[in-house]
Design brief:
By secondary structure, the chain is mainly β. 7% of the residues lie in helices and 22% in strands. It starts with a helix and ends in a 5-residue tail after the last strand.
């Protein structure tokens, strides 16, 4: 677990965005963090070899997430506040449209291994203006 494991929980979540430049983070777990203390709006985790991310939907102020060039195999549940997300260059295989918040404007999930897209429920009202699925196989 990144936040608890490094003992930096208070320091990482100060300010409007959070950037991590570590070489390998296999698990990010936001499930047990005191949500009322988190004001993070943007997370940048490009190229950190993240394999699993849990509880991302609990970051209720999050508007942008950058998780490109990691090792995610499953698409995480996203917070309702999210506007834009970048998941390029991961080995994600299935895109479940029900995990995407209706308010999201842009999702880049190109250069993955997506072979299945699960459609959103009939009553979903997605506001996506751009969905990039470039170079999936």
């Amino acid at each position: 677990m990144l936040a608890a494991g490094l003992g930096l929980r208070e320091k990482l979540f100060v300010g409007a965005f959070w950037t991590v430049g570590l070489t390998k983070i296999s698990l990010l777990d936001f499930r047990n963090i005191a949500i009322e203390n988190i004001t993070v709006q943007e997370i940048y985790l490009y190229g950190n070899k993240v394999e699993v991310i849990k509880g991302l939907e609990n970051l209720t102020n999050l508007t942008k997430v950058e998780l490109s060039k990691n090792l995610l195999t499953t698409f995480p549940k996203l917070p309702k506040s999210l506007w834009t997300a970048d998941f390029r260059f991961n080995p994600i295989q299935v895109l479940d449209m029900n995990l995407i918040p209706e308010s999201m404007d842009f999702l880049n999930i190109g250069y993955n291994k997506i072979h299945t897209i699960i459609p959103a429920k009939e009553n979903a009202n997605h506001q996506l203006k751009k969905l990039d699925l470039t170079f999936n196989n």
